[in-house]
Write a structure and sequence with these properties.
Radius of gyration: 16 Å
Structural class: alpha+beta
Strand order of the largest sheet: 1-2-3-4-5-7-6
Oligomer: single chain
Order of helices and strands: EHHHHEEEHEHEE
Strand content: 25-35%
Helix content: 25-40%
Number of helices: 6
Largest sheet: 7 strands, mixed
Length: 186
């Protein structure tokens, strides 16, 4: 992990953002890790990927972090979506308090267990807590019921199961995990 740099993507890196997402969706764990399929991602236009990278590179709404190796390869990523209080979340449910929502968690198979996931999460959570007003009170994520490895990592990082469960069209469930702001009430 020592030689990696964890940083936010830049808008001009849209082709790399696209490539990493395609790689993530080719991973054997993709069916229990992502709601998007490889076919869906590959069918998206260049304009979609340009907008996605630009939106994740600046502003308050979203930020994508990547773990960049000494060879320039991106070996992991996590994206934070900001869900403001008084709005609706990705699923159309009301958001009572401002929160960060971690999505798109991916570390290449050969790099898992090396500390990259921890470094990516640390950068993402630090970014959430550093956002200027209104402060976000928690960070959340969802994990598929069959993704025990991811759930164990999230618990080690400090996330706790909230009890909220989403049923997918497939009949499977996604469980919400949350991390409250240090010193907060969430």
């Amino acid at each position: 992990m020592d030689q990696y740099v964890v940083r936010a993507v830049r808008a001009v890196e849209w082709e790399r953002v696209k490539g990493l997402r395609i790689d993530a969706l080719r991973d054997p764990a993709a069916p229990v890790a992502f709601l998007e399929t490889l076919d869906q991602a590959e069918a998206r236009s260049d304009g979609f990927w340009q907008e996605r990278a630009a939106g994740a590179a600046s502003g308050r709404r979203a930020r994508q972090f990547v773990a960049e190796g000494p060879d320039g390869e991106w070996d992991g990523s996590v994206t934070v979506l900001v869900e403001e209080g008084g709005t609706s979340d990705f699923f159309g449910n009301p958001v009572e308090q401002g929160q960060g929502h971690l999505v798109g968690v991916f570390v290449r198979e050969g790099r898992r267990g090396t500390g990259l996931a921890e470094a990516l999460f640390a950068a993402a959570v630090e970014w959430v807590w550093a956002l200027e007003g209104p402060a976000l009170e928690r960070v959340r994520l969802f994990v598929h019921e069959d993704n025990a490895r991811a759930a164990a990592f999230y618990r080690r990082f400090g996330f706790v199961a909230s009890g909220t469960v989403l049923k997918l069209e497939s009949g499977a469930s996604e469980h919400e995990y949350v991390l409250g702001r240090p010193g907060g009430t969430a």
